[in-house]
Amino acid sequence: MSHRHRTPEPTPAVPRVPSSVFEGMFVRALKAEGRLAAGLEALGYDMKRPELDYPIELWQRATALARQEVYPELSEEFAYRQLGRQLVAGFAETFIGRVVAVALPMIGPLRALERIPRYLTMMGRPDLEVTMTPEGERGRRIQFKDRYNRPDLMAGGLEHMLELARAQPRITVEERNPEGYRLLVRW
Per its UniProt entry, which superkingdom is the organism in (predicted)? Predict the structure, then answer.
């Protein structure tokens, strides 16, 4: 009697976040100290001895901690939007981020949006699926297949990125679901 062995479906690898993203958020932008720094260390991120990268779950816990410590008075959505803005501002000060930040004013908002997949890869997220559809001349509807980041964090990050590209963005979270989210971006 022969038994056929079924090969299990490969489990998708859990994304890892490069230390440059942690540096951008917690060292450069938030300048974490006191309770926030101690909390980050307890979670597994030591700002003084960074590892090459970290599991995305650690990133999620670290941003949740920052939301509680830095913006306790804000609504959850607005707090995460502010953290997204901080992330891009701080990442733009890192070695890798400077390369992008210098180019943004020259390429403008539309080309910056078109480069989102490349920028996300630089930030350790080549797994994200991004679909963009035009909404008039100065608008794009962007669908993110992303189970890990909060849509408000992404919206805040894109706001700051577009400001660096010399635009005045208005970003609305149109849809949230367990597999991702959709943003309406206008400038």
Answer: Bacteria
Written as six digits, the tokens of 183 are 């943003």
Q: What pLDDT score was predicted for residue 7?
A: 60
Fold of 16-186: H-NOX domain (3.90.1520)
3-state SS class at 115: coil
- Determine the Cα–Cα distance for residues 129 and 110; give it in Å rounded to an integer: 18
Q: Give residue-wise pLDDT tens across range 103-160.
A: 999 999 999 999 999 999 888 888 899 999 999 999 999 999 999 999 999 999 999 9
- Which has more confidence, 10 or 64? 64
Continuous segment of H or E residues that includes residue 182: strand 180-186
How far apart are alpha carbons 119 and 117 in whole angstroms?
6
Rounded distance, CA 186 to CA 78, Å? 18
pLDDT of residue 9 exceeding 70? no
Strands 53-55 and 16-18: antiparallel
Report the alpha-carbon distance of residue 126 to residue 152 in Å, rounded: 20
**Residues in Cβ contact with 96 at an 8 Å cutoff, skipping those fewer than 6 apart:** 18, 20, 122
